[in-house]
Amino acid sequence: MLLNRLHVRQTGVVAINLALYTLLAVAYFLVVLQWLNGAMPQLFRENLEHYAMASLLLSIGQSILLGLVTSSLLRLGNWVNSRWRD
Fold it and tell me: Which pTM value belongs to this model?
């Protein structure tokens, strides 16, 4: 019985993390799409080397941001899970 309750709680934490992650990913996609819609194609047409450098820096920045968001959500899930056990 106790094992079943822990499983339900962990499933709830995973569902909350997944919902938050999905919301953040969609918001990020829409913001980036709006923000870079004009700048990147123009940079591609005007200076291919600068476009390549900007694309590389954006990729590195995105990976760092993704790592921060993921670790924050995992910490939040662990915190919520520890509160539910008490």
Answer: 0.66
**Distances from the Cα of 20 to the Cαs of 15, 37, 48, 82, in angstroms?**
9, 25, 36, 19
63-78 confidence digits (pLDDT tens): 998 889 888 888 887 7
Contact 18, 70 (CB under 8 A): no
**Full DSSP string of 10-43:** HHHHHHHHHHHHHHHHHHHHHHHHHHHTTHHHHH
CB 80 within 8 A of CB 10: no
C-alpha 44 chain-centroid distance = 27
Asked if 17 and 74 count as a contact pair (C-beta separation under 8 A), the reply is: yes
No. of H helices and E strands in the chain? 3, 0
Q: Which amino acid is it at 75?
A: R
